[in-house]
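Revision sheet: structure tokens.
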Amino acid sequence: MEIPDTLIERLRKARCVAVLTGAGVSAESGVPTFRDAQTGLWARYDPGELASPAAFRANPALVWQWYAYRRSLVAAAEPNPGHIALAELERRIADFTLITQNVDGLHHRAGSQNVVELHGNLNRYRCFADDEPVELTTVPQDAPPPCPRCGGLVRPDVVWFGELLPPRAWRVAVAAARRCELFLCVGTSGVVHPAADLPLIARSAGAYTVEINIAPGALDGLLDLHLYAPSGHMLPALAAAAFGNAP
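Predicted:
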């Protein structure tokens, strides 16, 4: 798909850019989306019944094992050209905020620095009892370990159904959306809220808003421009067009 000159010029001249990424970006690295991860031994489980505080209370070992399985999928994946292009754009643009719904850490592995993780990170942990971070030197596979402070169970530091987003992460994301000149919404269906509100917040504040996705989703027709192509192709091409060399 051809990239409009308007977008190229806006990116080249922008001093403040915000990007929201979703599961589609990681899927191009071979990481299954949240529901697509239900294969093999996990096919009989509804992920919505595994990713909640109630599920953890009812069967902490089962939930822990499911997240161990998901971590194994992420460990086998590598950042793709879309991840790498975003890291390159950050180096080119004075004020660049990368907001992600993904919990796999691939943006960090690609070299991105200013990453806001709205839904947490699979490779971080916190105590289920006191909600404080926990550092694990070794990560058991079969059951959650006890918190070294209070003895409560350790859980993945991810946002589960029924939980609010981390307040600071959300504040930073909204601030970036409100001040940016250009907002890119990449690889997300636009159905998970409140993250899906960010491009609309940006547009209402005057930013030029662009969707990059493999197919139309809930944001179709609501932003200034829609480019339907894999982010691993579109983002490197956009970076190259705006700054003269592909990352």
